[in-house]
Design brief:
2 domains, YdeI_bac, 166 residues, YdhG-like, alpha+beta, YdhG-like domain-containing protein, six-stranded antiparallel sheet, 18% strand, 38% helix, single chain
Amino acid sequence: METFKWNSPVYTLNGKNVTGLARFKNHFGVWFFNGALLKDAENRLHNAQEGKTKALRQMRFESKSEIDSQILRAYLQEAITNQKKGLEIKAAKPVKKVSIPVELKSVFSKNAALQKAFNALTPGRQKEYAEHIGSAKQEKTRISRLEKATPMILEGKGLHDKYKNC
């Protein structure tokens, strides 16, 4: 199925991106969203951002005369076959450990409900609270921040939720 994403034609199969077309200043190309799974027997695929892009590969052309329709068709058929089989590369989500301030840890040991509520928060909200409390230079400020944050944590709210338009 043809659709438009990122101002370019993208071809999908069962709701998943398979391939797309893109043009750039000095070249145009065919994108393969799970191109890393292709055999690339002709050594035609490029990783657009080495070290960042895991699955996406592109076949680049500087002119229409460079396009070998048989090679392109073989790559497209392999990409479609892989998609029909359900093969895909999933990006690993980076796991960043939240550094819990000492004051918060000590309250957790006394208040299991607070620790349970904190653990139920999204990782982003946990990080907001941990950084907000831990970034204060003086202990009394960290304790004051913790006291103000405790009811919001217990309610499952984020530190900055009151500023969001929900």
